[in-house]
Amino acid sequence: MNYTDGYQLNQWRMEDRIQMQDFNADNAKIDAALSRHSALLTDLSAHKGNCRVEYRVYTGTGRCGPDNPTVLTFPKKPLWVIVFGDNQCMVDSPFLPHYVFLANGEKQNPKTHYSLWSDTQLSFYSNTASSTAYYPDNALAQMNQANCTYVAVLFFAEDE
């Protein structure tokens, strides 16, 4: 009697005597393999990421400061937002006290970066009027430079 390589299932030749116990043994092997496969898929499904990703594109206006926040609108509140611009990036989350701004060669004071979250919007601005350190209010720090294209990547919890 010959057997398959993968699961050692019976492979009969013309001269072999076919027996019920051979079929039953093969069926038990197939059932066990399918059960392991099903359990693996269930486990993978239970541990998949809970993230849905969307993006928004906007063009900066050059306006900045507390009276001119940059506003992103979404269907529900995301867990994280990352905005990419020309040599700069900002990261924000409802869990952070201030948004984090990163730019080539720019110093930053995170305590001057403000974000206001609602269920459908994020408004953020840079306000250094009360601080002479670092840089004054500017559109760069607020991800709103005039005519600059920005891409906002939004991360939503899938299970909400």
Draw up the topology in text.
Layout: E1 2-3, E2 10-11, H1 20-46, E3 51-59, E4 70-73, E5 80-85, E6 88-92, E7 100-103, E8 113-117, E9 121-126, E10 149-157
Antiparallel strand pairs: 1-2, 3-10, 4-9, 5-6, 5-10, 6-7, 8-9
Question: Can you characterise this structure?
Answer:
- The protein has one helix at residues 20-46; strands at 2-3, 10-11, 51-59, 70-73, 80-85, 88-92, 100-103, 113-117, 121-126, 149-157.
- By secondary structure, the protein is α+β, with helices and mostly antiparallel strands.
- The protein has a five-stranded antiparallel β-sheet, with no helix packed on it. The protein has a three-stranded antiparallel β-sheet with strand order 4-9-8, with no helix packed on it.
- It is rod-shaped and about 90 Å long.
Total helices: the number is 1
What percent strand? Answer: 25-35%
Q: How would the global form be characterised?
A: rod-shaped
Q: Largest sheet, order of strands side by side? A: 3-10-5-6-7
Mean model confidence by pLDDT: 83
Question: From the helix content, strand content and strand pairing, which structural class follows?
Answer: alpha+beta
**Biggest β-sheet strands, sense, barrel:** 5 strands, antiparallel
Q: What letter string, H or E per element, gives the SSE order?
A: EEHEEEEEEEE
Instruction: State Rg.
Output: 29 Å
Span of the ends, CA to CA = 56 Å
Helix content: 10-25%
Residue stretches low in confidence (pLDDT < 50, at least 5 long) are none
- Strand elements, count: 10
